[in-house]
Amino acid sequence: MSRALRVVVCGTNFGRFYAEAVLCHPGYVLAGIVSRGSAASRDHARRLGVPHYTHVDELPDDVDVACVVVGSSISGGAGTELAMSLIGRGIHVLQEHPVHLAEMTACLKLARRHGVQYRVNTHYPHVEPVRAFSEAARRLAGRQRPLFVDAATPVHLMQPMMDILGRALGSLRPWGFADPPVVPDRLGPQPFRTVQGTLGGVPLTLRVHHQMDPADRDNHALHWHRVSIGTEGGVLTLADTHGPVLWSPRLHVGRDADHRFVLDAPDADHLDLTTTSVIGHTGTFRDVFAQLWPQAIARALDGFKDAVAEGRDALGAAQYDLAVCRIWSDLAARLGPPDVVRPPAPRPLPAGELFPDTLPNGRGPAASSGSTRPADGDTPAPYTPSAEFFDLVAAEHTATASAAAVADALSDVDPSDGPVVDIGAGTGLVTEAVARALPGVEILACEPAVAMRAVLTSRVFSDPYLRSRVTITADAAPELELPDRIGAVLLCGVLGHLDADQRRRLWERILPRLSPSGVVVVELMGVDHPLVLPETRLATARAGHHRYEWWLSGAPDGADTTRMRLHSAWRVYRHHDDRDHDERPLREVHDSYHWIPFGLSQVAAESGLHARPLSTRPGMPPLAVLTRAPATTSR
């Protein structure tokens, strides 16, 4: 559609992720929050800067879409009644799963009668690692016939699992299942029940965690979606709903006349294949909530928006969704009601407790070629998805605004006091500017994001002048390795990524090492408190036949009133001098991260240093220099 859709979100539990997706994704406007009227829901709407409604009749006539994120009758909620009321008002409805087959059918018939769209969002097929798995599975099936599917799921996520399998196999038909085997009572309670059958004509083994705490389903699932699809060439595996994806080529070694392995045959190149390739990267659970889930909801919204624009017949277009629901209903009937459990809260174990020699800090995975996490597992490393575009904007900003101001602030640094430490060096633009402005100073450039560090390393290696003076590390604040003595510190676009405790620990590491005359240069964002930033195009650049646009939006984080979620969208278009810019982008890359907004006075208070703003180009992020003693002169 040519205009943005006005969307209301019904529900403020999982609905918070829907609201964030609407706020941060182009093509949508958050028009309000609908809930029963609790103080928390009203406060959530207030922080998002949108109206709060308690009844469908209160909604204005210009609402296009309602996202119903309220439990349906199968979950003991009134979500389907709410969806039908909204459809009756002529509003398109996207309803969060699970929804009973009879209710789904009734909503589709009602939507057809009112000429609107209705769809059940199973959510998890749109999560990026699941999408990558499904796309790879379809490519695999195009080359070799699937021989088996082995899948496992919690019982309350069984409907999304059927959708995942249908998308991965490219078809649901034919399907059929046997009743699960009866487990003798003498073996005691069993957390899993197994169903054998066929889906899309492929033999299926489905293991279902058939226990559930009715008051807290998600927190007591033993694991989430796991799927393996095997062919004669290997096994493709979705290790978890949130990644990674694994490819394990088939082990096959030729034999000689004496039945011994032949390891040096001319046609044995396949023995050089990696036994298992890890595709993609894994992040933290905070990354799941802050990035993967809102991005998945945005994809579901985009598909729904296309259906609205095309004016499809709701019931006719929903045959695949109805098939998913029928299969789920069949399986649920065969399995029977899940066992009700009410276990105590689990203690999630970090990987470091199991691999102490590999992960000494006990927190999480060490950095690898596919990870966007720093090695210390403490702080996420943003910017990896958009690293390829970073210099398109940052280069001009550095050249015209920050480089001169930073160089001026560091002009009195004594090389004998120790190196300049550039924390969060990014692609090295400021690092390079400082190196050229201060010929005698050594520089330690710290950058945890793998893709950003790759550009930084390339920049340093390609310039002998930099290579002799710049040392690069993958360290992340606050637990980064620092020399015993530091002449100056650069914190450009870094502090807002750290919470109060992390900033405290960072200052505790920096200040004892900073020389008496040393300085700290800080760049902030220019926002002192969380607020809604509508999506705005901040930059346009051209390279060859392509035009690049950078769009930024932001909103308060619904889970934490002290921080914002910022969202960047990079869009690549084919450049046309004689055409407007309304065409679809050739490519679109999204990046999202948290930012804690605060002002220079708070930085000064936390560090105990004296702050002096630096002069930069109007409209640019504010820069300041921090010193142990107040400035006596101004530059």
UniProtKB/TrEMBL annotation:
Gene3D superfamilies, sorted: Dihydrodipicolinate Reductase, domain 2, NAD(P)-binding Rossmann-like Domain, Vaccinia Virus protein VP39
Segments forming domain Thiazolinyl imine reductase-like C-terminal: 144-248
Transmembrane segments: none
Superkingdom per UniProt: Bacteria
Residues in Methyltransferase type domain copies: 421-520
Gfo/Idh/MocA-like oxidoreductase N-terminal domain span: 5-121
Chain positions covered by the region annotation Disordered: 337-382
Bias (Pro residues): 340-349
PANTHER family linked to this entry: BILIVERDIN REDUCTASE A
Stored NCBIfam families: thiaz-red (TIGR01761)
Protein name as annotated: Thiazolinyl imide reductase
